[in-house]
Amino acid sequence: MQLIATDGQDKSPVHFSTMTGKLDGFHAINTNTATNDFCRRMFESSNASVICINCYSMNMLHGSRKNCQPAFQRNSDLLSERVLEPHEIPRTTQAWIRLHGHGELINKTHFENFIWIASHNPQTIFSLWTKRKDLIRKFYSKNEKPSNLILIYSNPKIDAVMHNVPEFFNRTFNNVSKKSAVKQNCTGQKCKDCLLCYIPNNGVTQIVEAVK
After folding, report:
1. For the chain, does the N or the C end have fewer beta carbons within 10 angstroms?
2. Does a structural domain hold residue 5?
């Protein structure tokens, strides 16, 4: 777990994780999937077409990454309970930051804090995957979107590739079954070697990956 120091200030209480596997080399601001009510409802769905029943994060945080829960929970509490004070907002020199390698938006305050983090780090591209269209719509009905934030709608349905991007989003992320004939452009390489999801205005509005 890594803390990114603020410029000339004390270290931010926001925890940054250094990711591994597919996300090797990326820093991410993670929250605790296991205590997120939205995630728990989706994970416990009896609908086989819902991708969340295959949630890697939920499985890992109850298994091989169980020791990460306390740190992720501190982020969950910090980001969802109140808006950060200016001195608490982390500063980073990273080119790209993943918002949620683990986790999902908890509430509007959580998203608002992500907005302030992105706004205070204009040199960094932040990418956020979320299924919470309701929270995005509620916030952007009264606020502007930072140009360095890429919003990716995480389609909850398997084999239902979205051709229209929801309002305020830049892209959709879609899962298809392993034997699907649908062309995939997320094929298992490490994200740092692809960056399809992280480069703004590259003309790509749909990301498609096979269910693992």
Report:
1. C
2. no
